[in-house]
Design goal:
This protein has 15 helices and 13 strands. By secondary structure, the chain is of the alpha/beta class. A seven-stranded mixed β-sheet has the order 2-8-7-6-5-3-4, with helices on both faces. It has a four-stranded antiparallel β-sheet with strand order 9-10-13-12. A two-stranded parallel ribbon has the order 1-11. It is globular and about 55 Å long. The structure holds pyridoxal-5'-phosphate (PLP).
């Protein structure tokens, strides 16, 4: 006797995960014809020279599986770039891996080092993939808030969160969503705190080339004590205006890289070949990433000048392509409701900061993205001036 087809029930590995606020707000923005300053991606195209390099690589027939760790020429260029910018010499053969974007890099780093029961410290507010990644590995997420108001790290709180079970800490600078950039003094404090421990550092540096007002990005790779315990993660998607390409890098000491590659090998295995070759050739000229701070600082300043004429109060934006605004002069709505209202009634989509906290934390702050054409920013500013 045949029974009706039956789909087995799944007990969710991630029972609390639903549709992200980014998807929700982008859909709402599209439905209402709002200017989408919510999700972080440029609305302008990349350098045509980069497209030429990638399509050239495709036409040359560089279309089959690359080596598991990434094409050697790209790994060498990345190692040279880090050595030049941050003064740490990674071995391209054993210490640099090319990943399918920073998201996969972070998941893989967590899966390779976190055992069930291990604790991993995240500093809230934080990027939304961190906690589910730790949970998938069977780890325990230990949340430490960045100081409300300034979003600076609170080292007393971080120290108090360290325990014999702490396996790793995730740090992100320049920081999404607060747009703060850790100073050298803060990175050195982190180094001092972790020194003598077995705690690993996952340093999410995807916005490394978006720092303003002459403030340098202080990579974990530039501080020997941190470099020795760190997976340093970056992303070409952010740097070269190609967020959809999903190609990133991980730099880590050889023993950490060896474990990283064991997971990477049976996860994505490899990252698409022609884009890797195209990026390697394009990276021969450092100008595009060295000029990025000036490129985005001009947009940031244009946006902040416009915001000054609105009732939104722009908080500092030291790095990334985000600008947070305090809207308490305009509304007492909770952040998610305010962002929904802003999208549907004013025509500008934003992201509530509470979305980057576990239990939601209301501060009356929304995040806007200024990686947009000047016309897009002007349209948004005209609308925001009306509130
Ligand atoms: C802090 C942070 N980390 C990682 C990522 C993901 O980068 P990728 O697109 O390379 O996976 C993002 C993208 O928004 C981000 O903001």
């Amino acid at each position: 006797m045949h029974t009706a087809p039956h789909t087995p029930h799944l007990a969710s590995r991630l029972p609390t995960v639903g549709t992200t606020i980014f998807t929700v707000m982008s859909a709402l923005a599209a439905e209402r014809g709002a200017v989408n300053l919510g999700q972080g991606f440029p609305d302008f195209d990349c350098d045509p020279a980069l497209l030429d390099q990638v399509t050239g690589a495709m036409r040359e027939g560089l279309n089959q599986y690359p080596p598991m760790a990434g094409v050697p020429v790209l790994r060498r260029v990345v190692a040279d770039k880090i050595a030049r910018l941050y003064g740490h010499a990674y071995d391209a053969e054993t210490e640099i891996t090319i990943t399918a974007g920073a998201t996969q890099a972070i998941l893989t780093a967590i899966l390779c080092c976190v055992h069930p029961g291990d604790e991993v410290i995240v500093l809230e507010p934080c990027y939304d993939s961190y906690a589910p990644n730790i949970e998938l590995a069977g780890g325990t997420v230990v949340r430490v808030p960045l100081t409300p108001g300034s979003f600076r790290p609170d080292f007393a709180k971080i120290a108090a969160a360290l325990s014999p079970k702490t396996r790793a800490i995730l740090v992100n600078s320049p920081h999404n969503p607060s747009a703060t950039v850790w100073t050298r003094a803060e990175m050195l404090q982190l180094d001092a705190l972790l020194s003598g421990t077995e705690v690993l550092l996952i340093s999410d540096e995807v916005y490394e080339h978006m720092v303003y007002d002459g403030v340098p990005h202080v990579s974990a790779s530039s501080i020997p004590g941190l470099a020795a315990r760190a997976f340093v993660v970056s992303s070409f998607g952010k740097t070269f205006h190609v967020t959809g390409w999903k190609v990133g890098t991980v730099a880590a000491p050889a023993p950490l890289t060896a474990e990283f590659r064991k997971v990477h090998q049976f996860n994505v295995f490899t990252v698409n070949t022609p884009v890797q070759h195209g990026l390697a050739r394009y990276l021969a000229d450092p100008a595009p990433y060295l000029e990025l701070p000036a490129f985005y600082q001009r947009k940031r300043d244009l946006f902040r000048t416009g915001l000054a004429a609105t009732r939104l109060r722009a908080l500092p934006s030291e790095g990334t392509y985000f600008q947070t605004v305090d809207y308490s002069a305009v509304s007492s709505l909770p952040e998610a409701d305010f962002c929904r209202w802003l999208t549907t009634e004013i025509g500008v989509a934003a992201i509530p900061l509470s979305a980057f906290y576990e239990g939601g934390f209301e501060q009356g702050i929304a995040r806007l993205c200024f990686a947009k054409k000047d016309e897009t920013l002007q349209t948004a500013l005209q609308r925001l001036a009306k509130i």
